[in-house]
Amino acid sequence: MTAPALEAPAPTRLWTPRRVLVTRSAAERPHGQRVLARLEAAGVSDVELLPGDRLPNLRGSGGGTDDRAAFMAAKDTMALVVPPPSKRKLQPIPPSADFRLDLAEGCPAHCQYCYLAGSLSGPPITRVWADLDEVLEGLDPYVGQGRITTGTPERGDEGTTFEASCYTDPLAIEHLTGGLSRMVEHFGTHAWPGPVQLRATTKFDDVAGLLGLPHGGRTRLRFSLNAASVGRRFEGATSRVDARIAALGAVARAGYPVGLTIAPIMPVEGWREEYGALLDAVAAVLPAGTDLTVECITHRFTPGSKETLLDWYPRTKLEMDESRRTTKRGKFGSVKHVYPKETMAELRTWFEAALADRLPQARFLYWT
Ligand code: SF4
Question: Which domains does the chain have, with CATH numbers?
Answer without folding.
Answer: 17-197 (3.40.50.12110), 203-299+339-368 (3.80.30.30)
